[in-house]
Amino acid sequence: MKRRNFLKGLSAAAISMPSLAAPAFAQKPALKTLRIIHSTNLASLDPIWTTEPGAKDYGFLTFDQLIAVDEHYVPQPQMAEGWSVEDDGKTYIIGLREGLKFHDGEPVRSQDCIPSIRRWGARDGFGQMMMRFVDAFEVIDDRKFRIKLTKAFPMLPAALGKSNSSQCFIMPERMAKTDPMTQVTESIGSGPFRFLRDEWVPGAHAAWAKFDGYIPRKEPVSGIAGGRIAAVDRVEWSIITDAATAMAALQAGEQDIWDIPAPDLMPVLEADPNITLFVRNPSGTFYMLQLNHQQPPFNNPAIRQAMAMAIDQMEFLQAIEPDPKLIRICDSFYACGTPGASEAGSNVLKVKSIDKAKAALKAAGYAGEKVVILGVMANPVLGALASVTEDLLRRIGMNVDLVAMDFATMAQRRVSKEPVDKGGWSLFVTGWTGADILNPAVNQMLRAGGVGKGWFGWADDPALETLRDQWADAGDPAEQAKISTDIQVEAFKSLPYIPIGSTSTRVAYRKNLTGIFSCPVFAYWNIGKS
Questions:
Q1: Are residues 149 and 113 part of one domain?
Q2: Contact between 256 and 226 (Cβ < 8 Å)
Q3: Does the global pTM surpass 0.90?
Q4: 365/445 same-domain check
């Protein structure tokens, strides 16, 4: 509360705050450099190895995709010139556009695309689903290759072109042949900007330069499809963890975009005539409590159910979004407002009772095991949600330890499968876009194959995995819709994670920017400055 009271007093003073000195490496012509206050540290140069937001945003600047979905999630050719389908849907032939190059000047070839697909398919949930149907990859020539399937899989273009993590980015063959469980450390991309490795300061700064050898598509941008045009010579990220400092830098014109402004500063930003607030991602942001199914106490499904009984999504959402018009309660494992969403099986989320949760927790045999929450407190949204979670669990009688850290530290620690007293964890808060949870193919958190086959938390529910395979095998949309509902009903029994609702997240940017477009990811192509 002290921080909020302090920030309320900034509305009159913020515009007159002194100009912040830009770091020496950022002294470039202002109109040729897009300067971004980025909410997440860039800790990994491998957007296939990790789903952390910083790596994903880095990936979209640095790499390109064979196929990309448009604003309606319809797959469109991107690096691909196009594709054809033969043999009753069991063979795809993909051709590359002429003149594609990597940042080291080498041509993009079929021999690069195939191992890139294989490596992505070993890590990503949708990719793993697709690879179940792949019989073989065959090089036809440098610009054309064949994917042979064991049976028709019409979702293949959607898998290769998806916007949610992890995306199938194309890397040079030598990088793509890296073991999927090992991070790539080289940074040679195929996209519109070159990563400037010598300027990278983890936790502080990252920069890219326009790649003159990139050939954008001619079509207008739509979603993540169409022309990815480098409209500036440089893109720079600054990691500014103090919200008041970040706001002052944006207002002073020393930064151009703030990707996730602090919610309690929105009124100040809204009143500034030089700044626009814009809901850039129309699919919204959905938040979850990710539980560790492999360690006490959440390895007990009855304890997971007891915790869910205490959840009141409005308590969480009001802590991060003051505007009720931008809040959405969502008792679904699929993005509310989309065809797949329903409330089937969600009765546990409708209890909303501390007393009933306490009673259920006692009946489940909770014995005071410590619950370690990994709290990304430097992020104003994730930090606030972690604090609400801590308070809620204390109220139902759990032994809670909220450990403050930045996102990069959380992304490293969530890999641990150790007990909490040996560096493990119990719970963290995460957020995904609506595009990330449209259906069982893209919703990675619905994987429930246990250790080695699921997302962090490693839910283990064989029935859920069987239903997911049945959904992939189903050829009829009506049958898929039924199985999708069955998956949700089962998920509310085992609770691979707990949904806590959605907000429409706004970005803040200076009004001299041009080319801002709606997009389900933080993509910075096509954005210029006047």
A1: yes
A2: no
A3: no
A4: yes
Contact 464, 509 (CB under 8 A): no
Is there a domain that residue 315 lies in? yes
Do 348 and 491 share a domain, yes or no?
Answer: yes
241 and 297 part of one domain: no
Cα–Cα distance for residue pair 267/271, rounded to 1 Å: 6
Q: Which domain CATH number covers 298?
A: 3.10.105.10
Does residue 474 share a domain with residue 401? yes
Residue 290 within any structural domain of the chain: yes
Residue type, 352: K
Is the distance from CB of 76 to CB of 69 less than 8 angstroms?
yes
The CB density around residue 359, as the number of other CB atoms within 10 Å, is 14
Which three-class secondary structure state does DSSP give residue 402? strand
The predicted structure's pLDDT at residue 23: 43
Q: Which residue has the tokens 């689903």?
A: 129
Residue 170: strand, helix, or coil = coil
What's the number of domains the chain is made of? Answer: 3
Is 516 found in the same domain as 497?
no
Both tokens assigned to 345: 């099986």
Closest by CA to 71, choosing from 516, 443, 520, is: 520
The CATH number for 105's domain is 3.40.190.10
Q: Which of 147, 176, 205 is a domain's end point?
A: 176
pLDDT in tens, 200-253: 999 899 999 999 999 999 999 999 999 999 999 999 999 998 999 999 999 999
For residue 293, give both structure tokens. Answer: 């199914």
Model pLDDT for residues 432-442, shown as the tens digit of each residue? 999 899 999 99
Structure tokens at 16: 């007159």
Q: Which of 235, 230, 265 is nearest to 249 (CA)?
A: 265
Q: Per-residue pLDDT averaged across 93-101, rounded?
A: 98
> Helices H, strands E: what count in the chain?
16, 21
CA distance 168 to 118: 9
Q: Quick one: pLDDT at residue 15?
A: 35
Instruction: Looking at the structure, tell me whether residues 82 and 140 fall in a common domain.
Output: yes
Measured CA to CA, the distance from residue 326 to residue 155 in angstroms comes to 32
Is the CA virtual torsion 457, 296, 449, 475 positive or negative?
Answer: negative
Q: Give the orientation angle of helix 477-494 with respect to helix 301-309, to 10 degrees.
A: 90
Domain residues for the domain of 116 are 67-176
